[in-house]
Every structure is written in structure tokens, then in C-alpha cells.
Amino acid sequence: MAALSLRLVLFDCDGTLVDGQHAIVEAMAAAFVHAGLPAPSAAAVRDVLGLSLNEAVERLLPPATPAGEAAAAMLQCRGTFDAMCRGPAPEEPLFPGIREAVDAIAATGALLGIVTGKGRRDLVATLDRQGLRDRFITLHSADDGPGKPAPDMVLDAICRTGADAGSTIVIGDTTFDIEMARNAGVRSVGVAWGNHSPVALKRAGADRIAATPADLPRLVGEMLA
User: Mind listing the pLDDT tens digit for each residue in 72-82?
Assistant: First the structure.
């Protein structure tokens, strides 16, 4: 009898597991102001959530920003987000029903992992605060190499767990998550409660769209059956 393939389900963090957009929008605006640059709009920040911090800042900078100002903005943003990690916990509650969805998927025997644009320290702090760290066998952040939409985090997770692409699913709320999954040759589920619209997620190539966290166990089960 042929051995069954290991099933691997990789979750994004911000916008998928936790609602951290308000804290991130405020921190990004403060960092830009401290660097002497105009604060980006909340909509502009939401558009780049999911990317690594450096990539997000680069996209938010005004056109033709001098290299020196761009470098200063990068440093300021990094310092602001590091300070957030050291200070009082930011408000980033779990989306209602997401804990139950994670537990239901784990109960099927699937391996769970994280692929996120968060820094590793911030990611671990978030999972610890929510009591979720032990649910995930592998954690991958932008600190580990190229960020989304590059496939590296997904491919590394597959390699580390012994799963294969055909039995791996990425769950995320941004087009960058979906593009990362496509670039890695795996399937994806877009979530409707995050930062990018279901229309944008579907256009990016999401195989399924989850309207609520309660939909995730069923969709994952159907895709991995």
C-alpha cells in the first residue's frame, strides 16, 4: 500500500488569523512622520500588508524619494515596529471563529505552519499572546529570506515538514499570499475577512474563497481529500 502524503496547511498571520491592521496602519503612519515624510493613507497601508516591511515601505514611499530619505524611512519603520514588540501588546485580536477553525483542521491530522510578512520576533509574540504557538509545527517569516510573493517560505515549509506541493494549501487574505502559493505550485484559499477583497483574491488565482473562518475546515478538507 502506498504511503499517504503528509498534508500541510500554511496560514498567513495578519488579516487571516489576527486583526492587526489598525495597529500596523498607526505604526506605519507614525514611522513615516518621524522620518519627515508624509504619512501614507490607511488604504495604501492595507494594500501592502503581507509584504516584508522593507518591501511595504518601498511601495509606500512617494515617487522619486531620494535614496537617503528612503533609507531613513526604512530604519525608522524598523525601529517603530521593534518598539511595538518591546512595548505593550498591540491590539490584534483573533478573528471570531479562527481558533476553532485552526483546531478543526489540526484535528484532521494535517500539519500546520505560518508564512508571514511579520518579523519572527513579532510573529512569536503574537502567537504566544493568543495561545496558538503550539498549533504550528513550522514558522516562516520575512526574516528567513525573500518575502511574498516569492515562493521561498512555502517551499522551505514543504522541505522542513516532508510534505509535497500537491498536499499543501496556503490560506491568506492578500493577493501576495495567493501569488506566493501559485509561484510555489500549491493551491490556496483566500479569506474574505482580511485586507484584500474576495474579487482581488480570486483574480490573483485563489482556488477557493472562505466567507467566514467556519468555512475553512470544510474547504481544506475538500481540497485535500
Answer: 877 877 787 77
Model pLDDT for residues 152-192, shown as the tens digit of each residue: 999 999 999 999 999 999 999 999 999 999 999 999 999 99
Residue with cell 496602519: 25
CB-based burial label for 211 (10 Å; 0-12, 13-18, 19+) = exposed
Residue 15 backbone class (left: φ over 0; alpha: ψ -120 to 50; beta: rest): left
Active site residues: 12, 14
Q: Which residues contact 56 (CB under 8 A, 6 or more apart)?
A: 28, 45, 48, 49, 117
Helices 53-60 and 21-34 pack at an angle, to 10 degrees, of 60
Tell me how far apart the alpha carbons of residues 42 and 70 are, in angstroms, rounded to a whole number: 20
**pTM for the full predicted model:** 0.83
Buried b (16+ CB within 10 A) or exposed e, 168-181: bbbbbbbbbbbbbb
- Are 57 and 77 spatial neighbours (Cβ–Cβ below 8 Å)? yes
